[in-house]
Amino acid sequence: MSSQPTLTADGIQEVHNNPGTYDVTHITTNALGNDMLLLTNFITVYPTPLPVISVSGNTLTSSAASSYRWLLNTVVIPGATDGSYVVTQSGVYTILIPDENGCNSYADYIFTGNENLTGDGNLLIYPNPSSGVFSVEIVMNAAAA
Known about the structure:
Elements: E1 6-7, E2 13-14, E3 20-30, E4 33-45, E5 53-56, E6 59-62, E7 69-72, E8 75-76, E9 84-86, E10 91-98, E11 104-111, E12 121-126, E13 135-140
Antiparallel strand pairs: 1-2, 3-4, 5-6, 6-9, 7-8, 7-10, 10-11, 12-13
């Protein structure tokens, strides 16, 4: 299937990550005019199923894949290349799963362990509405901190 790219605010044309085969158009403009190069069916986007993380106690387990790479707060955890990982601290854990085309799919899990959040504070979740990516922030009042 072929699809037309979308034009972004900065003038870059891009195709979103929907699976399919896409054309690439390169347009160059100078004082003498425009020149265009069309590359038909130049990029193929393969479907990448998203992994699922399940939790049992302090063990995170990814859905089945041929290889795994775990990250903590966006930093690769050395040696963490199994389907399961035993968590030793709170943070945002990410599982990266490469496919046969060299593309990574990923899932995140926020692990807070046995911590109990108490005191006088606010839980902020933003932006609202969200396109699926949002931030969670705990803001403690000065008297409670």
